[in-house]
Batch of 4 targets.
Target 1
Amino acid sequence: MEMSKPELSQRALAMYSEVDGKTIQSRNLTDDIFRRMTEAAGMMLDWPLYTRSGGFSLADIRTMTLQHITAHGPLAFVVVDYIGLVRPSGKKGQTRQQELGETTRGLKALAMETGADLFMLAQLNRDIEKRESAIPTLSDLREAGDIENDSNIVTFVINPEKLNPETPDKGKGMLWVVKHRGGACGKIELRFNAPLTRFDNLSRYHTPEGY
């Protein structure tokens, strides 16, 4: 709901062709870059990936999901980007927190009904930037209560360089699982490739003994 289909397609093309978005937008392409983009685009055509752009309500998301399952079969997962943009139901007298709670409960019910994993993206409160430690906590989620209560897993995406430009962990990213209803919590270090907006496995190289 935050990006158009062409924007999402360009983002995916950059990730999988390993050609950064700025180069793609410039259209100043060498033969090698054009070949990589063509190969990546051909691969993406076979993806069972469907996008819908626009402003949607919870009822819209449910209808689109069930219609898609009827037409194409089961879905592996549904992504809502992001939950704060889901239109409220229009019930009078509701606070913003009540509207958000209605949305999170509805999306959880949809996941249970369809058997699909459902990813809800959410924003953090801006107040985190004013703290000495900018490491987020569950309370930093906007209208955190319902998001936290209704989610089976809550994961923060952290860029150490943004928290501290002088960090020794340049080029690293982190997925921090802070709630896991059926498993362990913890941090997963990854390589963050900023030009491609992509996370990769973090390779560690050890010097063999004797060298």
Note: The two ends are 53 Å apart (CA to CA).
Target 2
Amino acid sequence: MSDSTVAPIVVDHVTKSFRVRGPRRGSLTAVDDVSFTVRPGGAVALVGASGSGKSTLAGMITGSIRPTSGSISFGDIPVHKLHSRGLRAYHRKVQMVFQDPYGALNPLHTVGYTLARPCQNFLGMSARQAADRVAELLETVGLTPAAQFAAKLPHQLSGGQRQRVVIARALACDPDVIVADEPVSMLDVSLRAGVLRLLAKLRAERGLSLLYITHDLLSARVVTDEILVLNAGRLVETGATKEVLQHPQDPYTVQLLDAVPNPFAAAAGTSSASA
């Protein structure tokens, strides 16, 4: 279980610009002077449409992309300055759940092998210890009987089951923070609620900090306490999840809410933003 006294992730005036090649040479600013904190045990939603800079920001927080300016820290660790060995240690504490459960798993490796590797590589477990840990992880994410799922290959699983394996892999080295980048966007609607409930349960039971990245404001209410709305690389609205959903202040936030289908809107004579 994660230590309840873990450090916050602090994003401090971060900007990321990319060079544009070709006839229109110049630079493109993907993230523009963004600051926020993911507190220990907290759950923050980073919300925006495609191209708003969400994934670029996630890449900087996980250390795969370096900011052009500003800083990112995890306690006293300067994430924006980490290299190979430092990143390895950091990734034990901060794990990623990717959007695509189909591309995130090696099709040639069984579920058991996929989950055992981080247990051995990060925690130094023996093969026997790792096997016990795999069974525990599969039970944690609701894939039982564990022995049967451990023997399966990814193509033998449904999309929802694959995403649960991805979550189990993120939990394997007992992290303090989970960065979930659109974790349900590629799943059938019928499967999304189950995965969101799992993330909420894991956060509550393990004291995990969660950065939940999504384009769907309404899904954020299941797993987060705070919402940050990102538009064209800039934060345009922040606040408690319930408050932002019920009383959005920025026109862009209203647009995002209106874009979410509401099956009750027609019968009630209301817009999706009022749900």
Note: The chain has one domain: 9-108+153-274.
Target 3
Amino acid sequence: MNETNERDMLRRFEEANERLSSEIARVIIGQERVVGQLLTALFAGGHCLLVGVPGLAKTLLVSTVARCINLRFSRIQFTPDLMPSDITGTEVLEQDASTGQRVFRFIEGPVFANVVLADEINRTPPKTQSALLQAMQEYRVTAAGNTYEIEKPFFVLATQNPIELEGTYPLPEAQLDRFMFDIRVDYPSELEEFRIIDTTTSIEPETPDPVLNGAEIIEIQKLIRSVPVSERVLQYAVRLIRASRDTGLPGIGQYLSWGAGPRAGQYLILGAKTIALMAGRTTPGIEDVREIALPVLRHRLVTNFHAEADGVSTDDLIGRLLDTISS
């Protein structure tokens, strides 16, 4: 990548990021960390899981992002009685008015959109949750022996309530691994909460303007993949991932049943590239990998009963990993 291309790439990316961030800020008050991580996944081409208690604007944030990037948006409200065909689509028997013959026609489900909000994804059984697996990984859906392509760009942004466990179904590990980030949505600060209540009870809500289209998103994703990465940064990501599988690592290994796989390393590097460009740099450093270690790893580490007994969370273990694996 020559110097002219680097400058042009940075300029286009910075303009897109600034426009998108400013439009989202018209609707979403605070939550800068959450918005930043969501945009990182968006530009990197990954899916996101947003975990937080009700009322923290998770659904509003996803719908706002969809409006800002001017793409087809669909919302799936997951319930215990939802069937896989309710997500992917189904074939119906129709009669051709001109010939009188009956033919099957595939009716696309809500997964055939550019931005899919899977609301409360843990409220539906694994059979239905798994209906998203092929779409998230391969950008296609197979129904009745036929395969149907999903238009790119394609993002699944799922929400999950962490405090209501009755009548819920934990996501299978295979599906969790398809999400680039597990983003934790926290309560707002006192000042942010004051502004939220003041603005939402006194004026009409803001409507964001579209600032990016699908072709521009795809171009940005290609630019990010073209960003060079030093061998030192790659080696650090590999060391971090492999350390999560080291059962002999003091203070860490005894609490883990399973560590992170190679996909975690891929997302660490893609995320680090995106963060570097957001900061105006043309190549990522180790600090960029460390910055996104939490959302990349927290849903990929499987703790055992020792961790539960000692009150050690996955976030605690990731912090220990970062302390142990120095640059």
Note: Residues 1-226 form a domain with the Rossmann fold fold (CATH 3.40.50.300).
Target 4
Amino acid sequence: MANLNIDFVNIDESEIRRHDRLLMGGVWAEVGLRYDDGFVFKGQNRPFFIDKIRPIQLSNRDITGLVEGRKRIGDRGKWMDLLLRSLGYEPTHPYFTHRRKLLYLGRLLPLVERNFNLVELGPRGTGKSFIYQQISPYCHLVSGGQTTVAQMFVNLAERPARTGLSVGCRRL
């Protein structure tokens, strides 16, 4: 409960098992809190309890539903269109040739391949960073201005002068 500056919150163990990524941190969720001033744990008052939780982000790693859904779609072209549509693009627009669809889907590679960095150069406002800002909290995005290769891929501790778009993502 970092946003509320609450260090200790009680939660039922079954909720942790159901949403295992909660232990990793960084999962956004809507929660119902309860306050019980009488609860003491190891001599300290720990009054906050999570009664209900509805994760906004993916909170577990069960992808069997996704795999089954992919099998039902069948056609690779339909699957590509679904992915593009879920990224905010309309794949039936005449702009999207098969090659352009593949190029746009290529933007997802840093999300699924370890140690895969992507540099995409282009003018402002062309959607280079849109996917990374919307789809995953595990992406490091460097955009705008001027930068060097070392700043983009090595020295991310400082705020570098920047250019283009560089993306590196931790795999889940």
Note: Residues 32 and 52 are 5 Å apart (CA to CA).
